[in-house]
Every structure is written in structure tokens, then in C-alpha cells.
Amino acid sequence: MNRTTLSLAAAVTALAAVTGFAALTTPDGDAGTPTALPASVRLPVERSSLLCPAPSNSEVAETVYTSFTPAGEGKGSGQAELKPSAATADETTADPKKTNTPKKAPAADKPVLTLTQPGKPVSAEADGGDAPALVGSASGPLAPGWTTQQTTKVPAGGGRGLLGVSCTAPDTDFWFPGASTAKQRADYVHLTNPDDTATVVDIELHGPQGPLKSQLTEGITVPARSSVPVLLSTLTTDPAAEDVTVHVTTRSGRVGAVVRSADEKLGSDWLPASVDPVGTLVLPGIPADATSVRLVAYAPGEDDADLKIQLASPTGTITPAAAESLHVKSGMTAAVDLKDVTRGEAGSLLLSPAQKGRATPVVAALRVVRGKGDDQEAAFIPATGPVGERATAADNRAKGTTLSLTAPGETAEVRVTASAGTEGGTPATKTYTVKGGTTLAVTPPVPAGLKGSYALTVETLSGGPVHAARTLAEPDDGIPMFTVQTLADDRGTVEVPEARQDLSVLVD
Asked: Is residue 4 scored above 50 in pLDDT?
């Protein structure tokens, strides 16, 4: 065989893998159809990481962890488990100068939760205020789409409420619009380091008038495989602010970050990070019986943002009477009270540039309240991206679960699969059509013979992008306790270059 020809073919094949496409033809100039080499293929991820914050400091807290991986095409063996972080600091001593001395967590090497089979969720429970943050990883067929839900019920006390959060992947940059340093609020940002070396974290606070003065000069150290909760009001000497945007970045390493908010009158819940700054945002899953909805937004760039506010209702997109637009000054947090914007019908908020062609990146979140008087409960809905190919919410119950699906653009069709239960049950599947510009709120399918809780997986089949959120309601003593989790693309597959040789182009 001609070695020169072989080397050239191999080089072109390698170039195809890098540039995305190559067409090879026979050396004699044959007019046949060129052979195109695919640029890449999508393969299941081989490893996933998740971090769960310490659930509560209340002695009456009851926490349930539910872990799930959708059934897929992954082969071979693997494992998925969540272990206690090596150490977790006490919230009551979360002072910036003391955050490098967290207390040790017991049995850090013993898994709290172990998942062994795709398609079947598992759960574990923890009681009291000593439950630590968890650090976990999944490999092999358990890695693609691995999801864990942490649900905590605190029936009484200053942190009462139903607190839910999807355990997050480690990252280096987080935005939390909707936090507060107000006197009636106790907001902690929980930082969890999954790695074997310490990481340094910076926290910036931005109020209605701009950056809040910070007492930190050298960042916050989060020790290896440890978790540190930091009380936001201790980070600034400025007067208390009702609406604050928190920006968390790492100087080295990576962390999981989420804000736990407790209000004296409205209870407590987790505030997850908003999607990264973009010009158009979707905040899905406002309950039909919401009595108060507050929108908080922040523009991190040099330009102000003028946002058009719309509500995607069950019948179409409308402009709410409470507010048609919101002006967000650069570097400042803006907020508007939308009151009972849904008026008895579930909906989702759509934010877009007030003027076409002038999209300014922003981040945003909603604080949603249900109930009245002394019987009120609050939850948070951050702006979120579409479910993409697939997204999952774990820990759903036979009663009290609502799935909201929003198609901000074109009409879309999605498939919703209810997994088997943690203690038994047969999976169920249903297909929904979501009309463009609307929100469809449904009671999702429930596994036949369900025992325990189950996972819901949403897959986009056709049409435009779909945004989704799951509401879990569990009333207690007249208080409409609830929590809302948005569903993000699980990124269970990754695009990798495909290199191959078409030997038919080689000649002797």
C-alpha cells in the first residue's frame, strides 16, 4: 500500500474530527459522490457529580433524599452514591472569619444513599438538625441523567416550611437574584467543596442602589470535601436590603452553591441559582393559587435592561395588569410586585427585551407566596433553561404533585415518564402537546401500584423549546406548604469527535 496516501488519508480524517467535516474523493478525480465523515457523535457521559447542602438546623426537621437515573443505553457496571461531606460548619456560627473551621461530620465514608439500577429510584431519610451536606458521584450507566432531590419538612419554628432542592453539579459561577439581608430574613449561602483541595470563594452582594459594602477582603476558604454556610447579612455593613442579588465565584477550584432563605412570616425554602445572564428568560411553574408573586432581576453588564413582562397562561400569552415592564439599571437589583398575577390559573413568566434588537443579559427569580394572613408559605422559582432532550425531577408523590410545561415559542410535544416507585410500582408514560405561548399545568401520570415516591422524566419529542417545573404541595396545620423545582437539561450525553477512515479511498 502507498504509505504517502495512507498518511494523507489519516491526516484528513484527523482534520475532520477537529474541524467538524471532511469530504474525501478518490485520487484519480472520479466524479462519484464524496464520502462525508460525520463531525461527531453523542455518547452517554461516563461520570456525574452532585452536591446536596446541609438540609436544616432545626431539631424537628425531617429530610428525604431521592436519587434516580433514567433507564438508558449505557452498558457495563457502575455506581452512584452520596456520602456526608468530611465536615459541615454550623449555621449559627457562620461568620466570615470562622468559615475555615467547620465541625467534622460523622461517618463521612459511609454512603447515605446508593443507587444501583437505572430506572428505579431509591430514597433515604434523615431527622434533626445535624444532617450534613452530601457529596456524590455516579459512574457507568448510572451517570447519564443522574438526579437527586432533597426534600425537608420543618413543621414549626423559625425555619418552618417545605424545603426542596435538586442537588447541584459543582461549578465556578452562580447568580442568586431574590435573596435578602432584611431583618425578617435569614438567608444563608451554602458552599460545598467536592474536591480534595481547599477552594477560595468570593461573594458579591448587589442591592437596589448597587454593590453592598463587603467586610470580606480575601475571600472565603471552603476546606476540602467540606461545606460552609454563610449568613448574607454578616457580609455587609450597609443597611438591610429587601432585594439582593448574590454573585458567587471561585478563585480556585469549584463548589456547589445554593441559598437557604427563612422568613419570619413566610417560612423557608431554597433559592437555586438562576440561569446564566441572557436577554430572554423563562420562569416556569407559578401555582394557580399564588396570592403574591415578586419578580427580582439584575443586569450584570454595563448597560441598563428594559424588560417586557408577559405571562404564559393556559390559553395564551398576556401582559399582566400589575406591571407591563421593568427597568433594571446596570449593576443594581430591581424588583416589582406582580401580586396575584395568575388569577386562579397556573402560569409562567416570560421576560424579553422591551425593544427588539436591544437584548441586555439579565438574571432573574420569583418569590411566590400561597395562603393568606398567618397561614402563608413562600417558595422560589429561578429563571431556567429548556428541558432540552431530557430532564428529571425526583421525589414526586401520589398526591400534591403538579407538573408545569411552558412553550414560549412554537408548539411542542413532550413525553412524560413516571418511573417505578422507591418501594414498588409500574412505570407509566403520557404524551402532552403544549401550545406555543402557553403553560400547561397537569397532574402527571402516577405509576400503577405506587409505593413510596417516584421520578418524573420529561423528554422533548418535537416542536420548540419547553421549560418545566414541578410543584410539590404538602399542607400542614392549615399552612399551604409547598416547594417548586425547575427541570434543567440533564446533559446525559456529550458530543465527541468521531474519527474514522474510509478505506475505499486508499490505493496501492
From this structure: no
What cell numbers appear for 8 in the block? 494523507
What's phi and psi for 440, nearest 5 deg?
Answer: -110, 115
What's the grid cell of residue 246?
448574590
Question: In terms of DSSP bridges, do strands 317-318 and 35-37 run parallel, antiparallel, or are they unpaired?
Answer: unpaired
What does the alpha-carbon distance between residue 416 and residue 445 come to, in Å, rounded to a whole number? 8
> Cα(443)–Cα(433) distance, rounded to whole angstroms?
14
Identify whether the C-beta of residue 9 lies closer than 8 Å to the C-beta of residue 1. no
- Work out the burial of residue 196: count CB atoms within 10 Å of its CB; fewer than 13 is exposed, 13-18 middle, 19 or more buried: exposed
What are the start-end ranges of the E strands in 383-497? 390-396, 401-407, 412-418, 424-426, 428-434, 438-442, 448-451, 454-463, 467-473, 482-487, 493-497
Query: Coil, strand, or helix at residue 48?
Result: strand
pLDDT tens, 107-145? 567 999 999 999 999 999 999 999 999 999 999 999 999
211/143 Cα distance (integer angstroms): 39
d(CA 481, CA 284): 19
Closest C-alpha to 148, from 129, 130, 161, 135: 135
Please say whether the beta carbons of 456 and 405 come within 8 A. no
User: For residues 164 and 55, what is the distance between their CA atoms, to the nearest angstrom?
Assistant: 9
Q: Which three cell numbers stand for residue 217?
A: 477582603
Rounded CA-CA distance 487/439 in Å is 15
Q: What is the DSSP letter of 75?
A: -
Provide the residue type at 9 as one letter.
A
* pLDDT value at 392 more than 70: yes
Helix (H, G, I), strand (E, B) or coil at 3: helix
Cell numbers for 301, please give them. Answer: 453588564
Q: Please report where in the chains the cell 393568606 appears, as a residue.
A: 372
- Nearest Cα to Cα of residue 281 among 369, 348, 358: 348
- Quickly list DSSP for 152-178: EEE-SSTT-EEEEEE-B--BSEEEEEE
- SS3 call for 149: strand
Assigned C-alpha cell, 40? 461527531
| Predicted pLDDT of residue 31 | 44
What is the 3-class SS of 211-276, one letter each residue? Answer: ECCECCCCCEEECCCEEEEEEHHHHECCCCCCCEEEEEEEEECCEEEEEEEEECCCEEEEECCCCC
pTM: 0.88
* Cβ neighbours of residue 503 closer than 8 Å, sequence gap 6 or more: none
pLDDT of the residue at 73:
65
